[in-house]
UniProtKB/TrEMBL annotation:
Domain spans labelled Radical SAM core: 58-263
Organism: Achromobacter insuavis
PROSITE patterns named in the record: RADICAL_SAM (PS51918)
Assigned EC number: 4.3.99.3
Source taxon at top rank: Bacteria
UniProt lineage: Bacteria, Pseudomonadati, Pseudomonadota, Betaproteobacteria, Burkholderiales
rRNA-binding found in the keyword field: no
Feature: compositional bias, Polar residues: 1-10
Annotated spans, Disordered: 1-47
Name under which the protein is recorded: 7-carboxy-7-deazaguanine synthase
């Protein structure tokens, strides 16, 4: 036994008794998630609009916390998070950061979602802070900000890119003119960056019939997309899809992509 570990080196307390070894505060591995801030946060605060403590579906195959950024310039008519369209900081990033620090070793990754997370000016520093804790980083984006995606791409381990429609149907979905162009620019970046990513579309035949959906998918496959998912449109997340994608269409899609999912 070396001197450093010898019991003879335990310091003595007053009266000649050996003092108990110093103890570090227990690690709060199961600390409760932060609550919304009780007082309005400063205007420059990161617009954290929500938090899911753990999820297995927001990054397929990865146990992750999901941080929702409030703010999005598009107004998709089927959006299930309309409260996140307007920029508003409901959670203090410092509290969220402390929560993530206590979950190290219990979670594999952190997903930044929205709203549109790239609308947050401080997102690059938030991503870097989460990476320094040892987390892998995922991003959900609609592809609205190609330059901002380029700024963070080297810090990302996975991206879920929302494809809204084919070129002629984009503006009807987003409520914004020429919205197809930035989304395609973001897709081009992902195809050349070597980052793992998935393209996915929220689908209803009233917006995009099966023939147009298959045309869109075939073009994505031709460009080199390996993972594609069709998410059936729902009146709310807990209800079944309003309309089902045909089995023949599903079979074609499975043949075009290395990984196809119908959700």
């Amino acid at each position: 036994m070396n001197a450093a570990s010898s019991s003879n080196n335990v310091p003595e307390a007053a009266g000649g008794r050996k003092a108990a070894p110093a103890r570090h505060p227990p690690r709060l591995a199961h600390a409760a998630p932060p609550r919304p801030a009780a007082q309005p946060l400063p205007r420059h605060s990161p617009a954290v609009g929500g938090l899911t403590p753990f999820s297995t579906v927001d990054w397929p195959g990865t146990l992750a916390a999901v941080i929702f950024i409030a703010g999005c310039p598009w107004r998709c008519h089927y959006c299930h998070n309309p409260e996140l369209q307007t920029r508003n900081a409901r959670y203090d990033w410092r509290d969220v950061r402390a929560f993530l620090d206590n979950r190290q070793g219990l979670l594999d990754g952190v997903v930044f979602s929205g709203g549109e997370p790239l609308s947050e000016p401080r997102l690059p520093s938030m991503i870097r802070e989460a990476r320094r804790m040892g987390y892998r980083i995922g991003l959900h984006t609609a592809g609205i900000y190609p330059l901002r995606l380029a700024d963070v791409l080297r810090y990302l381990d996975w991206v879920g890119l929302d494809i809204k429609a084919d070129a002629q149907g984009y503006d009807d979905i987003t409520g914004r003119r020429d919205s197809h162009r930035p989304a395609q620019a973001c897709l081009t970046q992902l195809l050349t960056a070597g980052v793992d990513f998935e393209c996915r579309i929220t689908w209803h035949p009233d917006w995009l019939d099966e023939t147009r959906l298959l045309g869109l998918a075939r073009e994505l496959a031709r460009r080199g997309v390996k993972r594609f998912a069709v998410q059936g449109a729902r009146s709310c997340p807990s209800t079944p899809p309003a309309r089902l994608l045909g089995t023949q269409a599903q079979a074609l899609l499975r043949g075009w992509f290395e990984d196809f999912a119908y959700r």
